[in-house]
Design a protein that fits this description.
alpha+beta, Muramoyl-pentapeptide Carboxypeptidase, domain 1, L,D-transpeptidase catalytic domain-like, four-stranded antiparallel β-sheet, 14 helices, 17 strands
């Protein structure tokens, strides 16, 4: 992130009276003082105080983001809130910022990281052989100081600062967990890279996440589904808070899942799969060419795209087909081997993205789960289907089990739709203050930060 002069200094920026008077109503003294303080403290929102000369401009950026996501992140398709044109008389900064506790915790985390930066940052770990508990190495002292600066190590240093002791092992595992790595206690290459990510880069990630929060609707609803692409997690939020969570598999970087919102409207048990052309020609066609009979063995039907008639897979000259010559459509029968599993959950969107079950349950054990062609695979599709249907009609888990055990396809439209938000947030702060970071798997933060000029 760009280091602007005065970002963390206490220089007080004067607020021109015209910045408020544009509303036609002079603000009261308390509101004026609050906006003056907000401009001085704009760095905590990931914004540059030097860019703001009046309350109106800061109010606009706090209420709807500094940038329009349509240009800053073309893969973000969640409607942006209407910006506050002018704070008016008596309107305070906290009334236009996102009211979420997540946003407030991110601001406090950014304050801490700015303070770390201004105190000199953290040391880089020199390259060398992997480190683990029980070893003695001069780099251990650097590792300990690195983790102390970021708040991961808070124990007393032993008699030998070069010895990798149990306290340092705990600190390293804590660090690994909060940056999305396997908590192995072993300084391998991914851990070395994460340790040597600069505080400036971490500040940039926090600033990007704060900007994305400002793009989100202020009233998501009392009940909704929240899917974070960057974490590979789904949460169902109810009036009392999170109801349950599960792992998900999202799009591969070559076929990324877009950020979007909508309303879950339909549950299908034992769905068939109409294969998108990209998957047909890039994934399935090579498998059939390498091993004739692959499609037939997995219940795929081949449809002539011109006549609409089904043709026998054995009669198709697969070896002569390719991405530019594929006059067929593929459809897979319902069943336990179907790529969509036993359950599909749909909402209206122009990208043909939906939630679905999968027969490949072992993939949810992976730490990074960017494996799909854009759709979102559910670790426990039955639980989500049961929740959606139970709030819509007389339905329970036994009904879901019965529906999935049948061979016929059953489509149930929801009368009570549930909002869904698919977001891309690479950092957040737990309720206990632990700052979490995840990899920018699609490079979207990098593009956003470049647009922000950081």
């Amino acid at each position: 992130m760009r280091a602007a002069p005065g970002w963390f200094a206490a220089a007080l920026l004067a607020l021109p009276a015209a910045g408020f008077a544009a509303s036609g109503q002079p603000p009261d003294a308390s509101a004026a003082a609050a906006w003056q303080a907000a401009i001085t403290d704009a760095a905590a929102d990931g914004l540059d105080p030097a860019a703001y000369q009046d309350a109106a401009s800061l109010a606009r950026d706090l209420s709807a983001g500094r940038l329009d996501p349509r240009s800053a992140d073309p893969d973000w398709h969640i409607p942006r809130p209407e910006p506050v044109g002018n704070p008016g008389s008596g309107l305070l900064p906290d009334a236009v910022r996102p009211a979420s506790a997540d946003y407030a915790r991110l601001r406090e985390a950014l304050r801490r990281y700015l303070a770390i930066r201004d105190s000199g940052g953290w040391p880089a770990l020199p390259p060398g052989a992997p480190l683990r508990a029980g070893q003695r190495d001069p780099r251990v002292a650097t590792l300990r100081e690195r983790l102390r600066r970021s708040g991961d190590f808070d124990s007393e240093v032993g008699a030998d600062p070069w010895f990798f002791d149990a306290a340092l092992d705990r600190a390293l595992r804590h660090f690994q967990q909060r940056v999305g790595l396997q908590a192995s206690g072993f300084v391998d290459e991914p851990t070395f890279s994460a340790l040597n990510t600069s505080v400036e880069q971490r500040i940039g990630r926090l600033a990007a996440t704060l900007e994305r929060w400002r793009w989100l609707p202020r009233q998501p609803g009392t009940e909704y589904v929240w899917i974070n692409i960057a974490t590979g997690m789904l949460e169902v939020i109810g009036p009392g808070g999170p109801q349950f969570a599960m792992r998900v598999i999202v799009g591969h970087p070559a076929r990324p899942t877009p950020a979007m919102s909508g309303e879950l409207r339909q549950v299908t048990f034992n769905p068939g799969w109409s294969v998108p052309r990209t998957i047909a020609v890039e994934d399935l066609l090579p498998r059939e060419q390498e091993g004739p009979g692959f499609l037939a063995a997995r219940g795929f039907h081949v449809i002539d795209a011109r006549s609409g008639r089904e043709v026998a897979p054995g009669s198709v000259p697969w070896e002569r087909l390719g991405p530019d010559r594929f006059p067929y459509r593929l459809r897979q029968d319902p069943g336990p081997g179907n790529a969509l599993g036993r359950i599909k959950i749909a909402w209206d969107n122009p990208y043909d993205i939906y939630l679905h079950d999968t027969p490949s349950k072992g993939l949810f054990d992976l730490n990074r789960r960017t494996l799909s062609s854009g759709c979102i695979r559910l670790q426990d599709a039955a639980a989500l289907a049961t929740l959606l249907l139970a709030r819509d009609r007389d339905w329970d888990a036994a009904d879901t089990a019965a529906a999935t055990s049948r061979s016929n396809t059953q489509v149930l439209n929801l009368r009570r739709r549930l909002p869904v938000y698919v977001v891309y947030l690479t950092s957040w702060v737990d309720a206990d203050g632990t700052v979490q970071f995840r990899k920018d798997i699609y490079g979207r933060d990098a593009r956003l930060l470049a647009a922000l000029g950081n």
